[in-house]
Amino acid sequence: MSSAGELLELLRTGRATSLDELADLTGLSEERVARRLEQLTAAGLVLPGQLTLNPDAGVVLGVAVGRSRSQLAVFDLAGRELAGDTRDHVVGLSAPELMPQLVDRLTAMLAAVTPLPGPVLGIGMSLPGAIDPVRQVGLENPAMRGWEGVELAPYFAAFGTADGVPFQVANDAEVLARSELFGTTRRPLRNALVVKASTGIALGVLADGRVISGQHGLAGDIGHTRVDVAGQLPCRCGAAGCLETVAAGWALVKRLVDSGLEAGHVRDLAAAALAGDGVARSLLRESGRQLGDLLAVAVNLLNPQAIVLGGDMAAAFDLYSAGVRESVLSRASATATRDLVFLPATHGDSAGLVGCAALALEYALHPARVEALL
Ligand SMILES: [Zn+2]
After folding, report:
1. How many angstroms separate the CA atoms of 315 and 321, rounded?
2. 374 residues of the chain, pLDDT tens digit each
3. Separation of CA 248 and ligand 1 centre (Å)
4. Measured in angstroms, how far is the CA atom of residue 242 from the centroid of ligand 1?
5. 59-172+352-373 — its CATH code?
6. Which terminus, N or C, of the chain has the lesser number of Cβ atoms within 10 Å?
7. Ligand 1 centre distance from Cα of residue 341 (Å)
8. Measured in angstroms, how far is the CA atom of residue 238 from the centroid of ligand 1?
9. Residue 76 forms beta bridges with which residues?
């Protein structure tokens, strides 16, 4: 028997857009569907007379934390950003050092949204590296010292009720995949590899409409796969011969500097490539080829409909995607690539943040939680 919460999920995710579809997908009579919709409307979760989630029934907070930058935003339930705050911070800040700052910034941000459409229904956060999905804490990660095992939910207690506010943390590549499910005008992708090619390289995996997390939230962490072409080149992870040593922004910037060009960040590399610099262009294209060699295996494994390319390197999308496409099409099977498309990330630089909002919303509006609200 499908609950009102399950109906809301079908509407929210765009899987059903009419009474007919709701009845078909749930096996309920239209009369029963209508009765459950009345419950959802009375609770303010569905707009009266419409089959859509009320975007103003509340807000969710996105908290995307990286090594040197944190992006924060308030979203309505349709994925529109109501306020945002992105700042660089000192590399190496521990959780007890950074978290109170983030909470202060979120508090200020919420106060500035007037009128606030509704209560904070959920908070979604991303961190680089492995996550313990049960305890909702980060695991050991050399890039994020001082976060391992630190309980994060208590920091957000001020935003919720006595029971606290629903909180979820996930790996940063995983939330990227979620971003492609949220706030898009096209039909959401069901099967996709969502790449973030920036200082590092990682991807999120969407399979049959679900985001794959993996045992430690590390599904898609392909940047540290050994590749023959990298030989014994040292990687920032401490190992040698990883894909990142020949394809990640940090490695390419180093080469660009070695060739005599000035570049401090992978954004400079993409800008130089777009301006026509030959060295930058060949570095980006070759980086795409190296990534594509590994993606070809993933394409045969998962049969995605799209490879989505995001991150700073994808700013030069035509060039970068040409390299990726070349390798994928030459290595993956003809049947797996027949309808495969290469797309830029829907949310650009905000993809991680939007993915956090999607994570928060999915958890906050889980059918069982909605039932409890009614
Ligand atoms: Zn590595």
Report:
1. 10
2. 689 999 999 998 888 889 999 999 999 999 999 999 999 999 999 999 889 999 999 999 999 998 888 999 999 998 889 999 999 988 889 999 999 999 999 999 999 999 998 899 999 999 988 899 889 999 988 778 899 999 999 999 988 755 678 899 999 889 999 998 876 666 778 899 999 998 889 999 999 988 998 888 888 889 999 999 999 999 988 999 999 999 999 999 998 888 888 878 899 999 999 999 999 999 999 999 999 999 999 999 999 999 999 988 999 999 999 999 999 999 999 999 999 999 999 988 889 999 999 999 998 899 998 988 88
3. 10
4. 5
5. 3.30.420.40
6. N
7. 28
8. 6
9. 59
Nearest to 176 by CA among 305, 340, 310, 72: 310
- Those residues whose beta carbon sits under 5 angstroms from the ion ligand 1 are 224, 235, 237, 239, 242
Rounded to two decimals, the pTM is: 0.87
Q: 């959920």: which residue's tokens?
A: 122
User: What letter would DSSP give residue 316?
Assistant: G
Domain ranges of the chain: 4-42, 59-172+352-373, 187-345
In CATH, what class is 187-345? alpha beta
In total, the chain counts a number of residues equal to 374
